[in-house]
Amino acid sequence: MNILKHKQLTKLISELKKNSIVNNVKIWKRVAMDLEKPSRNRRAVNLFKIEKYAKENETIIVPGKVLGTGELTKKVTVVAFNFSDSAFKKIKEKGSVVSIEELLKSNPKGKKVRIIG
């Protein structure tokens, strides 16, 4: 991981932990703990798994990388630390892609957000 990406990740983890304490929300602490793991131990989720478990118009967070195997037929918002190019394109066709930072700002209480991994 390059230095810039590592600094962004460190800052994101810090913001998640801080928000978890300030708003008394466990989901952000869980996401931070998952992102602190070595990259080889972080979650990697294929689109077919998101398709299988997500509900229509739901916000799904993957504390790791979303991979492009499978198709997405539901309109969902997918939030992740990283996306493969094919996953990003497929999600944009049906739903929307949001960064963890954007979700944290728009939904600090973590309401109606589900972790898949």
Itemize the secondary structure elements and their pairings.
Blueprint (H helix, E strand, L loop, with lengths): L2 H21 L2 H11 L6 E4 H7 L5 E9 L9 E7 L1 H10 L1 E4 H7 L6 E3 L2
Parallel strand pairs: 1-2, 2-3, 2-5, 3-4
Structure, described:
By secondary structure, the protein is of the alpha/beta class. It has a single domain (3-115), classed as Ribosomal Protein L15, Chain: K, domain 2. Helix content is 48%, strand content 23%. The protein has helices at residues 3-23, 26-36, 47-53, 85-94, 100-106, and strands at residues 43-46, 59-67, 77-83, 96-99, 113-115. Strands 1, 2, 3, 4 and 5 form a five-stranded parallel β-sheet that branches. α4 links the parallel β3 and β4. α1 (3-23) packs antiparallel against α2. The longest helix is centred in the N-terminal third of the chain and has 21 residues, at 3-23. The two termini are 21 Å apart. The model has no long low-confidence stretch (mean pLDDT 93).
Shape: globular
**pLDDT averaged over residues:** 93
**CATH architecture classification name:** Ribosomal Protein L15, Chain: K, domain 2
Number of strands: 5
Uncertain ranges:
none
Radius of gyration: 14 Å
Strand content: 15-25%
User: Distance between the terminal alpha carbons, to the nearest Å?
Assistant: 21 Å
Write the CATH fold name: Ribosomal Protein L15, Chain: K, domain 2
Number of domains: 1
* Count of DSSP-assigned helices: 5
